[in-house]
Amino acid sequence: MIDILAPVIALDGPSASGKGTVAARVAAALEFHYLDSGALYRLTALAAVRRGVLFDDVEGLTEVARALDASFVEGVILLDGEEATEAIRSEAIGEGASRVAALAPVRDALLARQRAFQRLPGLVADGRDMGSVVFPQAQLKVFLTATAEVRAERRHKQLIAKGEDVTIQKILEDIQQRDARDSARTVAPLVQLPDARLLDTSAMTIDQAVRTVLGWWETVQSSRP
User: Fold this and answer.
1) Are 126 and 27 in contact (CB under 8 A)?
2) Is residue 19 annotated as involved in ligand binding?
3) Fewer Cβ atoms within 10 A, N terminus or C terminus of the chain?
4) What is the pTM assigned to this prediction?
5) So what's the pLDDT on residue 3?
6) Angle at Cα 87 formed by Cα 83 and Cα 93, nearest 5°?
7) Distance (Å, rounded) from C-alpha 111 to C-alpha 117?
8) Is 81 labelled as part of a ligand binding site?
9) Would the annotation count 15 as a binding residue?
10) Whether the Cβ atoms of residue 8 and residue 139 lie closer than 8 Å to each other
11) What is the average pLDDT score of the chain?
12) Can you tell me the distance from the alpha carbon of 106 to that of 68, in angstroms, rounded to the nearest whole number?
């Protein structure tokens, strides 16, 4: 059951925008719970790959999502009891997650699991439809973005640091394709809601972005009766 008293900060935005890092730091600063909704779709994609379920098999993917044995323990992500923190961050799984997330039955299967994260003292949730579908009652909604070129640059640095051999042009193309797919899908498309505050981090550091969100949260709190 959702605790209706638990406040929610919803951060939505495109792939590689840095919203996960910002959301996690905001949650830590406020001592709130944190939901990385994208991790659930990545875990679904990884579980599907391991079970031999194709990404165009809607029924098979829905069953994978319903039976997903995933848990988050002190920053470690587990799938079927085994650590999957790094495995779900590969480009291939990220691409698969984007395809999986476009399927309405899969999203429905994961909806209750996401809403269960709303517990006191509060929740910071990041994803593509946190403010529009999962937590439409969120007290603060943020649409966090950056230019595709900046996002590709950031992602390239992350992958190079992990020892992966990938060109920035390929990453840029992948990001542009994901943006188009996430924005054009009929189910929970990626959009900036009218009541969401726009945060463009193209020229900002992570610390600056975190301070901005925390400042907005203080404003929201101070304006409540």
Assistant:
1) no
2) yes
3) C
4) 0.85
5) 44
6) 140
7) 11
8) no
9) yes
10) yes
11) 91
12) 11
